[in-house]
Amino acid sequence: MDFDIPRIPLGDWIESGLDFLTTEFSGVTRAISRGTQSGINLLNDGLMWLPEWALIALIVLLCWKLSGRRLAIGGLAGLALIWNLGLWNPMIQTLTLVVIATLVAIVIALPLGILAAVSDRFYRVIMPILDFMQTMPAFVYLIPAIPFFGIGSVSGIFATVIFSMPPAIRFTTLGIRQVPKDLIEAADAYGSTRSQKLIKVQLPLSLPTLMGGINQTIMLALSMVVIAAMIGANGLGSEVWRAIQRLRPGEGFEAGIAVVIMAMLLDRLTQSLSGGKKTK
User: Fold this and answer.
1) pLDDT (tens digit, 9 = 90+) per residue, 94-127?
2) Where is this protein chiefly located (predicted)?
3) CATH class of the region 20-49+85-275
């Protein structure tokens, strides 16, 4: 005898929930969208205002100061190649989205990571959520972004923030929890309050681990910004997506190389900020 097991209408529930949220919070999402778009335009216009050679010179000097001659020479060659390929404006658009998404993700992730580090109860709650977020395919994050913010760069930033937050939360929690207990006990012996221990002992000692989390957040933000071209985000991702649609593999590889150059520069710079060894 066959038994028909009723199908759980999970998709219908999710759609109903999204419809409810987009209807009830439409004013909030519109305000966030306008503010975010204004920030995107401001930063993008500021970077575009600088001549290409001037911005390249500033980035090369930053690379030299933070990491050394090798990264400066590599950065000069890479950025000059992007300029030569005619991908400078898309690169600036991608950098704008990465910077804004990373800043928002860090602002949200650091307090959550600190709370998870000092509260075992919150730690047990948030860790399964982070596991779920990091296991979810990247393309799925694009789906809820469209009902809330429509097609465009704001939706790309929304999806990027959600996708790139987990490493910053994990590394913040890990860094604070790995501070040696004898140092915590010494701070207690001197009568430090919880906030004094956090600000003067735990956060400074966990800074290299925190920077590792920020590095991972930047890398994930860059990868997601490229994918977000599917929902209208501007930048190098849109160049790759356009090349796929028009069957132009050469142009797609050019944009992909520009993304790799950006990733290498951002990765090396953040590693240098975290106290990495300076290369000659």
Assistant:
1) 999 999 999 999 999 999 999 998 888 999 999 9
2) membrane
3) mainly alpha
